[in-house]
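ping. complex inputs:
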Amino acid sequence: MSEVYSVELENVVKRFGSVVAVDHVNLKIRENEFFSLLGPSGCGKTTTLRIIAGLEEPDEGIVKLYGKDVTDIPTHKRNIGMVFQHLALFPHMNVFENIAFGLKMRKLPREEIKREVKRILEIVKLEGLENRRINQLSGGQQQRVALARALVINPEVLLLDEPLGALDLKIRQHMMVELKNIQKRVKTTFIYVTHDQTEAMTMSDRIAIMKDGRIQQVGTPLEVYYKPSNTFVASFIGEAVNLIEGEIKENGIVDTSLGVIYCSEQSAKGKVAVMIRPENVEIDEKIDSVDNLFKGIVQAAIFKGSYIEYRVDIQGITFIVHKHGEENLGKIYPPGATVEVGWKKNSSLIIPVQS
Amino acid sequence: MKVIRSFLKIFTVMVFLFLYSPIIAMVIFSFNESKSLAVFTNFSLKWYEKVIANPEVWRALYNSFWVGAVVTIISLILGLMMAMAVTRYSFTGKTILESFILIPIIIPEIAEALSLMMMYIFLNIPLGPVTVIIGHIAFDISFVTVVMRARMVGYDKSIEEAARTLGANELQTFFRITLPTLYPAILAAGLLAFTLSFDDLIKTLFTTGPGFKTLPLVIWSYAARGGVSPELNSLSSFALSISFLFAIFRLRAERRMGR
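pong. complex structure:
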């Protein structure tokens, strides 16, 4: 039995003048998946979302919803829901009328509309606010109205365009958990566009990372963090990363400007980069039982609460190390101290250099 | 500094006195019992009674209202379409069109009126209510477009997109989302258009046909015939109060639009 995909994009291209906003994008999004499109601003993620919604027409390629080609079907005939960046609530309607709009367009009987609105208000926890005007709601409540309005029509997919951007940090963190819960409850595919990796990592089943209109990698949060497909993904995901360019000498051994680095074995050829996450690196006066060992001088030690971030100069290259654990927090190496920095070969990953 | 400030105060008061004292005097003397325009003797409504008893005034008032209504509706439709075109789409000649919209506001009305009349004669169109209406629309449309455009710049198009994702086609989106959100601007523009049409004398004078008179035309013909009379005062005050009422409605609508 073949897998069910709620959304498929095949070789989708969208140009704005001479700019290629979306460049041969292929995606298969599974049913009931929480899928994020992540990338810096201008990477084409919002355009991709708008193409799925039918608000932009692709210049090339095919859009499918549940296996059906919808490329030429207008937005109002695709059964999709969308939450907009600035919410786009109807200012001249109250909460009930906003949420009921999609049901009215579907010509449902009044009683059923009332019942459905009530049901969805319960899910987004807005009971009793039916008659409020939009400008009488807080930012978080408006967020929920926008979500309810898009969900009440039982869309085949829900598209979300950076919906949490306008909220402050505390409400945003709360809404992330909430969104994930709602997604599980309503059992609908969510496609979530964001430039914020925390949002993507927190909620997503899978993430597609985009840059310059192209998909760089599609994978689970763990995969994109630990097995980035190229240097762009490696540096975009995570708080910090060490990337050292070099050339493959033999299987698992890379020749770099620091000398030879031992890596987990991987078949690759020519110019590559070695990625080492800062939390996988040990730092001490004397380190045993590591595969890669370098001497360096501490440039800076920054206390970050649960860990200390060291910036260590190794032969002119700045290396970032995150030191966790309370037994280490009492002892901070001051700038100027000579230390040893080391890691096991399983912690250094060979990845292709992003062209 | 203090001297300059008190000078500015006095100057401002004088400007307002200069602007409004004739109007105030006109309104006061419309209630004067005597025929004198210099001495106020007693309060009386007799000039108003005379005006109200005059069937020509009523006919003119009726004409003014229906001409104004037709002009307002057509100007609103055309002006709304024009404003939408220039704020939403880019096309060749857009900048030229945008400055052309302003021309009827800038050029002297008499030139516009004269050229309209000449065109009607040239095209052999009989003068009458229709030519008056066309003349009013020709410049009302500019005012409507300017008011609507000001509102539409910065209009968040995503609410229309939201409606479409919820299953509304383009027509439903226009009537249920676009029009209602533009309602305050439409109201303000409509009241402005009506007031302009209701007050217009010059263009009506040049484009009307035999027997078709609006209220300003009647006032003007009385003034031209017999000079200033208390009856004319009360008639003008009457027209003034109607315009004033519409101006108040408009200001309230504009305040709502600003919000």
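The longest strand of chain A covers residues 5-16.
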